[in-house]
């Protein structure tokens, strides 16, 4: 049902209107005279307003985002205002024209003629025409009514109004100003009727009931899998034998365990007083229509004001209750969903269908074009011959996978990920137990041994996703999201773990590459560039940086380049053979309402959404570093490439960068890649004119820029950071405004929860770029601290006049200057202690003149001296003896469900039955504000060992340190059965993964 209503001011009726819409979920809402400068937000609806020159918009349309619709362009006008959109639902398509004609204006027939001529029928024309004619029940005729009647006849339209008044004024006058016309062939499918009350306006809401255009109501049932039944079904299938394969058995077990649940209808809380007032208003309006008494009309108007006050009070109470429900105990993902919902406006859910509607084609035809665009024009290459597989540098990479590797890969899977075309989700795979996991491991090892990847694992279902800020009516505005088989991606995750060990064990990655590597961060690349420029500037040398953008990097890299990269780093054998088959003849399709498209094949690029894709792309770029001259530095983070050089003269720097750019362009061209000169930029860290010293790529000069965004940081030529701080302030201020919606001085979210949100949202965004702001000016520091104080005043409920310094002190937070120092020291400690032989660990000696290094030197005496950076694991983890880990106690599901004596009894029973022949060690770790400590207790010898860590760390890290101390103790004792017991489930989960 479509509703059309002249609200005569929506702002004053928004509370009542929201509840009305929430209970009915109209697919389309047409509001005339909303008297709003900007549309009021309705959850689940996209809004659009009529275009005008000087007057306010008099037509406001809301449409459910689940529908397929196309907003048709209408030229602006002040007197004859229109909103036109084409709507499609399944086989029903129509054009809706929403109208408002000013009472004093002349009806511009040609304007409406043009709208109908440019848009396909059938048409529904509805709105407030302010026209009078006996045809629709008016007692008089005006010029607008005569022209409108002539227009209706010429266009073969049918009037749906039944003569019921839609406008009431006083006790003596009523008229039909809100009209609805439809194409004559469409009239039998549409029913028009009015509401029984005005809902506070002087116009009565009108409804259009369209056959085949049902409302967007929530489903009454949901389908869920009973995981206990699923486990039983799949175990039984494995014992009987899998004649049709494991994947088919998983789908059948899931189908048999599917349960249909009936959901209660979604209702809001009913307020007795509000319903009583509404009932009285309805009776007063009905009595007024019957008696035409001015007293009844005034009574209805007075009741409307009482209803509005009641709704405003209820709305405030519900919002306060909602805000108070936000606390740190809720999952952070749930809070993020709420925050995103508050910050983003609803948009069309399926814009790709709107593209098909715009082109007047079937969804499947447009999807075929999209698939052909993704596949490109490359030709298929033959499969790799078996005798051309190179040998592997590390023979242990070819060993069969172990059950521990499978368990570790399953622990890293995101259970909420969407399944691929086969319908098997990660949640199904994680619920495989016992024999089923062994069968799955056998499937993986067969594929690993034979070097064959099933075609089902190489087939993806593409979902076109609209790029942010792009037009939905252009095919180039969509990027594909590939949903591949979760079974295949699970095996990719196991192979990735081996690849990561090999690449780090043999130091394959160059120092310049930080993307998709453990304990590496994108800010490291920015620190590398900034410290180099600052150090060279102190030596009176000129520095220039070239930022390059690789066009369609992941989609265009050639498969031959990937295989050559594998061979060059020593990854042959089964890895080479499996990856070769994994890349060969990958197919994809798009699912539409008209059915799936044909299978399309891609013969270049890494698989979109593949677990191995980032690492395979990194391997291709490893050889790029060797092509760069020694006088030029390079930074690579995924497909973001930056090279920089310094020199005494401008021609010297230009020559070095030109040589590097030519080498990079040539190398990438050999790999099937191309640099985009339009998106590349040069930044010269000097005020000398540089336009005469341009660097060219592919015959096109790269423009010099004063600023450039690199890995989320805006770098300016003076390294004063004012442009970046301005961007920071804008983003941080938006976060502060968000906090204002969640709490105030006396209401809303608790202070503790608000400070938790502050640390998560505000500081989480601010801290990333702080390590490079060490030389920024005091005014920039004050700008950041001002935004910091603004956010904290909102969180603490302090007056706006409270000073920033006092606010930060009350919140027990640090000012921005201290946060900068903390982040610099944290980054330095990470370089020293987290990664083996990090190339930035020696910055203090290599670039002492950089402000980053000066800040570290000023606090060097306060830093721990004895670091124990992790060593490279020489033995592959899959070759090590895996300890038996247990994180559950039989009979205990939740500690809160049992009493303390019951918990103790069950734990002691498990220790006696299963570990009575083990020598027991007990460990513990804890963290306080002053530091971290751990302990190991050996009851058999009545001995204990205590220690403190060199610096404060997390409680899980302290527990892991205690477990390591227990292992060292065991190494000194005689061989026997040992059991280490800890109260940290997270520490054991870290060991299992």
Automatic annotation (TrEMBL):
Coiled coil: 267-317
Record GO cellular component, one term: DNA polymerase complex
PANTHER family: ENDO/EXONUCLEASE/PHOSPHATASE DOMAIN-CONTAINING PROTEIN, ENDONUCLEASE_EXONUCLEASE_PHOSPHATASE DOMAIN-CONTAINING PROTEIN
Organism the protein comes from: Rhipicephalus pulchellus (Yellow backed tick)
PROSITE patterns named in the record: RNASE_H_1 (PS50879), RT_POL (PS50878)
Protein name: Putative tick transposon
Molecular function per GO: nucleic acid binding; RNA-DNA hybrid ribonuclease activity
Domain RNase H type-1 span(s) in chain numbering: 915-993
GO biological process terms on file: DNA biosynthetic process
Entry keywords, A to Z: Coiled coil
Superkingdom of this protein's organism: Eukaryota
Pfam families: Exo_endo_phos_2, RNase_H, RVT_1
Stretches assigned to the Reverse transcriptase domain: 446-715
């Amino acid at each position: 049902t479509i509703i059309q209503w002249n609200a005569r001011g929506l702002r004053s009726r928004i509370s009542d209107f929201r509840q009305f819409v929430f209970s009915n979920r109209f697919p389309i809402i047409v509001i005339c005279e909303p008297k709003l400068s900007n549309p009021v937000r309705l959850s689940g609806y996209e809004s659009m307003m009529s275009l005008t020159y000087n007057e306010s918009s008099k037509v406001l349309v809301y449409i459910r985002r689940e529908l397929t619709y196309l907003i048709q362009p209408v030229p602006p006008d002040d007197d004859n205002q229109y909103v036109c959109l084409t709507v499609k639902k399944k086989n029903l398509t129509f054009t809706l024209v929403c109208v408002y004609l000013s009472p004093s204006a002349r009806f511009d027939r040609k304007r409406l003629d043009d709208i109908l001529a440019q848009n396909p029928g059938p048409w529904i024309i509805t709105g407030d025409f302010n026209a009078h004619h006996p045809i629709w029940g008016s007692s008089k005729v005006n010029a607008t009514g005569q022209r409108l009647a002539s227009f209706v006849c010429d266009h073969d339209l049918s009037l749906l109004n039944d003569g019921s008044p839609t406008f009431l004024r006083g006790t003596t006058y009523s008229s039909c100003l809100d009209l609805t016309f439809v194409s004559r062939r469409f009239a039998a499918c549409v029913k028009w009727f009015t509401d029984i009350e005005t809902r506070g306006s002087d116009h009565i809401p009108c409804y259009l009931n369209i056959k085949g255009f049902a409302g967007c109501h929530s489903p009454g049932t949901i389908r869920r899998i009973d995981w206990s039944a699923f486990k039983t079904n799949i175990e039984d299938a494995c014992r009987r034998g899998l004649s049709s394969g494991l994947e088919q058995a998983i789908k059948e077990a899931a189908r048999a365990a599917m349960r249909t649940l009936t959901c209660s209808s979604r209702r809001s809380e009913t307020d007795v007083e509000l319903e009583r007032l509404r009932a009285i208003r309805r009776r007063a309006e009905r009595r007024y229509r019957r008696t035409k008494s001015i007293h009844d009309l005034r009574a209805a108007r007075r009741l409307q004001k009482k209803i509005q006050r009641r709704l405003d009070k209820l709305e405030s109470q519900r919002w306060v209750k909602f805000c108070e429900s936000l606390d740190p105990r809720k999952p952070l993902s749930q809070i993020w969903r709420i925050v995103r919902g508050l910050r983003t406006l609803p948009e069309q859910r399926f814009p790709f269908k709107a593209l098909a509607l715009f082109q007047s084609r079937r969804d499947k035809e447009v999807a075929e074009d999209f698939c052909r665009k993704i596949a490109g024009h490359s030709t298929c290459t033959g499969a790799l011959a078996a005798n051309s597989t190179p040998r592997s540098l590390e023979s242990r990479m070819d060993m069969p996978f172990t059950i521990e590797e499978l368990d570790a890969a399953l622990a890293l899977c995101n259970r909420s990920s969407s399944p691929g075309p086969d319908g098997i989700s990660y949640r199904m795979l994680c619920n495989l137990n016992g024999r089923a996991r062994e069968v799955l491991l056998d499937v993986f090892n067969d594929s690993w041994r034979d070097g064959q990847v099933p075609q089902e694992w190489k087939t993806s279902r593409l979902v076109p996703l609209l790029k942010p800020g792009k037009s939905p009516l252009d095919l180039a505005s969509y990027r594909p999201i590939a949903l591949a088989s979760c079974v295949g991606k699970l095996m990719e995750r196991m192979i990735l773990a081996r690849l990561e060990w090999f690449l780090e064990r043999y130091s394959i990655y160059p120092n310049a590459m930080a993307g998709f590597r453990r304990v590496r961060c994108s800010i490291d690349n920015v620190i590398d560039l900034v410290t180099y420029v600052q150090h060279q500037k102190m030596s009176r040398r000129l520095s220039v940086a070239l930022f390059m953008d690789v066009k369609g990097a992941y989609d265009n890299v050639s498969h031959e380049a990937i295989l050559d990269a594998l061979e060059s780093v020593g990854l042959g054998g089964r890895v080479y053979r499996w990856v070769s088959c994994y890349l060969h003849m990958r197919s994809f399709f798009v699912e539409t309402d008209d059915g799936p498209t044909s299978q399309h094949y891609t013969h270049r690029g890494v698989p979109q959404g593949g677990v191995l894709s980032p690492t395979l792309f990194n391997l291709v770029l490893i050889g790029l570093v060797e092509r760069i001259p020694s006088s030029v530095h390079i930074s690579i983070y995924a497909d973001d490439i930056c090279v920089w050089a310094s020199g005494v003269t401008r021609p010297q720097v230009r020559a070095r960068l030109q040589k590097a750019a030519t080498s990079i362009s040539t190398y990438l061209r050999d790999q099937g890649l191309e640099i985009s000169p339009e998106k590349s930029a040069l930044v010269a860290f000097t005020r000398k004119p540089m336009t005469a010293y341009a660097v060219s790529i592919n015959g096109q000069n790269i423009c010099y820029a004063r600023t450039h965004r690199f890995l989320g940081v805006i770098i300016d030529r003076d390294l004063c950071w004012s442009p970046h701080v301005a961007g920071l302030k804008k983003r941080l201020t938006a976060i502060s405004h968000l906090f204002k919606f969640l709490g105030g001085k006396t209401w809303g979210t608790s202070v503790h929860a608000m400070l938790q949100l502050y640390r998560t949202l505000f500081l989480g965004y601010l801290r990333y770029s702080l390590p490079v702001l060490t030389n920024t000016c005091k005014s920039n520091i004050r700008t950041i601290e001002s935004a910091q104080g603004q956010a904290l005043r909102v969180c603490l409920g302090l007056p706006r006049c409270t000073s920033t310094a006092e606010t930060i002190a009350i919140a027990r937070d640090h000012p921005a200057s201290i946060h900068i120092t903390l982040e610099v020291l944290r980054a330095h400690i990470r370089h020293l202690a987290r990664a083996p032989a990090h190339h930035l660990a020696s910055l203090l000696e290599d670039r002492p003149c950089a402000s980053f290094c000066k800040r570290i030197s000023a606090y060097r005496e306060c830093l721990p001296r004895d670091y124990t950076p992790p060593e490279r694991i020489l033995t592959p983890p899959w070759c090590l003896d895996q300890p038996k880990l247990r994180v559950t106690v039989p009979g205990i599901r939740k500690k809160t469900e049992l009493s303390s004596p019951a918990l103790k009894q069950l734990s002691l029973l498990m220790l006696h039955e299963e570990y009575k022949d083990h020598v027991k060690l007990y460990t513990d770790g804890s963290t306080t504000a002053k530091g971290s400590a751990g302990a190991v207790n050996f009851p058999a010898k009545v001995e204990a060992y205590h220690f403190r860590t060199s610096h404060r760390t997390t409680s899980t890290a302290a527990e892991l340190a205690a477990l390591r101390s227990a292992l060292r103790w065991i190494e000194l004792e005689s061989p026997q059965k040992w059991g280490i017991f800890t109260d940290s489930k997270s520490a054991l989960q870290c060991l299992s993964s």
